[in-house]
């Protein structure tokens, strides 16, 4: 039985399609559940998968663009309706607290449980038995304040704390020195989920809008020697030809896969 897995809730780049919903990723490790971004429809997909909103322990938000956060207020309201009592950790830009509190006020809603807001720069730690999750942010290069996340799973084995997996999610970002330097400092990355909004021919537009091409994602994955690269946040202009992005990336790094909606990946 797998110790850790992730499932793609939504993988679209900005505009959703019937087969590609706004960005969100579900992560599981030893009874702990987390979400990386919360696009529209996230809670519906969770219910479809048998994961009730009350089971989510942490949410990490990369930035404040609507496609990454518009599913969050509704998810929190559903948590309250199900009489959640445990705390919820929300990691993200400082404005995420303002966004939620103003939304709660305007909709005459108050959560019945405690929300802990945490800066991406500070490591957040969750435990489950002998297992531990550490979520730490790093600066990325989008058109607004933005962060990626390193999520590391540990386990106490024979008195020693051992790394079980390391996952990196970039969120929306152009390939830039600040982000690359942050990831070079990380050792033994197992899975890299990287912005792949555009193909190579649109590399200039990618940089202008703070995004990456699939080839840029693959070049970074090759440098970091990750176990697997997952192409994510693919523009809806490629909705009938995502394989084009995959083929371009695999010409650089063979261990590349599409992070399509409803795809599940075992990571440990």
Question: Can you describe what's shown?
Answer:
- The chain is built from eight helices and 16 strands.
- The protein is an alpha/beta fold and 268 residues long.
- The protein has a single domain, classed as 4-Layer Sandwich (Metallo-beta-lactamase, Chain A), CATH 3.60.15.10.
- A hairpin with a 2-residue loop joins strand 10 and strand 11.
Poorly predicted runs? none
The description of the largest β-sheet is: 7 strands, mixed
How does CATH name the architecture? 4-Layer Sandwich
Strand elements, count:
16
CATH topological fold name: Metallo-beta-lactamase, Chain A
Total of DSSP H or I helical runs spanning 4+ residues = 8
- Describe the strand arrangement of the main beta sheet, using strand numbers: 7-6-5-4-3-1-16
Work out the radius of gyration: 18 Å
Number of domains: 1
List SSEs in N-to-C order: EEEEHEHHEHEEEEEHEHHEEHEE
In whole angstroms, how far apart are the ends?
9 Å
- Share in β-strands: 25-35%
* Helix/sheet category: alpha/beta
Task: Tell me roughly what share of residues is in helical segments.
Answer: 25-40%
CATH superfamily: Ribonuclease Z/Hydroxyacylglutathione hydrolase-like
Overall form = globular
- At the first level of CATH, the class is Alpha Beta
Mean pLDDT: 95
